[in-house]
Structures are given as C-alpha cells and as structure tokens.
Design brief:
The chain is an alpha+beta fold. It is 18% helix and 39% strand. Strands 1, 2, 3, 4, 5, 6 and 7 form a seven-stranded mixed sheet that branches. It has a single domain, classed as Nucleoside Triphosphate Pyrophosphohydrolase (Alpha-Beta Complex), CATH 3.90.79.10.
Length: 170
C-alpha cells in the first residue's frame, strides 16, 4: 500500500486591468471579508481558459476575454476552507472584461466587486484571500505575458471517450 497521492487544488483566475485599476471581488470567508482576483476551482470537463471565463462571469457579472496567460502559480495554504495544508495550483490569465451583464447576480459568497489600484491591493495585504492575489497583479504590472496556446487541453477532458485517453497522460 503506497502513500496517499498528492492532489493540489487547481484554480483559475482572471486579472483584469482598466485605466490603472484592477477588477477585484470581495467575498465572505470563514475568516471574514477577503479580497481576491475573480477566481475559483477548475471544474470537470473545462479547460483552464474556459474556467477563468466562467469564474469571472459568476463573480463579477462581466464577460472576460483572456488575452494572455499571466502565469502558473503554486502556493500552500497551511489552513484553508478545504482543510489543513491544501496546495493550490493557479492558472492566471489577463485580459479585458465587458460591462456587467444587466440582471446577472454575483455568486455567493461574493459580496461585491471593486476596482482597486495595485497600491490599494498591496495596502490591503492583510485582507487578501491568499498570497497569489498580489503576486498576480505584480506580475501583470511587470509585463509578464505568455501566449494562450501555451496551455493545451486534450479533447478527452470535455469528452472522456475522445481521442486515445489512457489511465496515464502522455
């Protein structure tokens, strides 16, 4: 009997900047109100890009158009809502957002959206959801951009019978 398999929690994030301000969300957590990029867990059957679009719409009521991969991030949260010692693998994308869709509700536990400067986000460090929130903004400000096609999603993700899916990825 081997050791338990390590399974990081895969998340996707949208970093949206307009006129020097970043679209952020304020959400209720067990630790109180926290500020985050529009972000959340990657769902079965979706690509990281599709996940980022979905999360942005759910959390901001805005359609997100990814333009670049900002980066792939790994961070361990010693005590999170998902349990002790969860490691998060985050795919962050930068791009633009539409105006809010009329009548589109924000997903719970999002309380509101807000546009913040990078300095305001940095000043709110003690209220950020985690260390990757500010890191993504700093990387965006530094001009980090990778092509979207750097991420490939095999058709078997959306349809398990597609292609030549095996028990081990190749």
């Amino acid at each position: 009997m081997g050791a338990e398999r390590w399974k990081p929690s895969v998340t996707v994030a949208a970093v949206i900047e307009k006129d020097g301000r970043y679209l952020m969300i304020e959400e209720m957590t067990r630790d109180g109100l926290r500020i985050n990029n529009p972000a959340g867990g990657l769902e079965p059957g979706e690509s990281p890009i599709d996940g980022a679009k979905r999360e942005a719409l759910e959390e901001t009521a805005c359609h997100f158009t990814p333009e670049a991969l900002l980066g792939v991030y790994l961070a361990r949260n010693p005590d999170s809502e998902r349990g002790p010692g969860v490691t998060y693998l985050r795919f962050a994308f930068c791009g633009t957002a539409s105006d809010p869709v009329p009548g589109q509700a924000l997903d719970s536990p999002v309380v509101r959206t807000l546009w913040m400067t990078a300095d305001e986000v940095a000043a709110a460090r003690d209220r950020l959801r985690g260390p990757l929130v500010l890191q993504c903004i700093e990387d965006h400000r530094a001009g980090r951009r990778l092509p979207l096609d750097a991420i490939y999603t095999h058709p078997s993700v959306a349809s398990p019978d597609a292609g030549t899916a095996t028990s081990e990825p190749t």
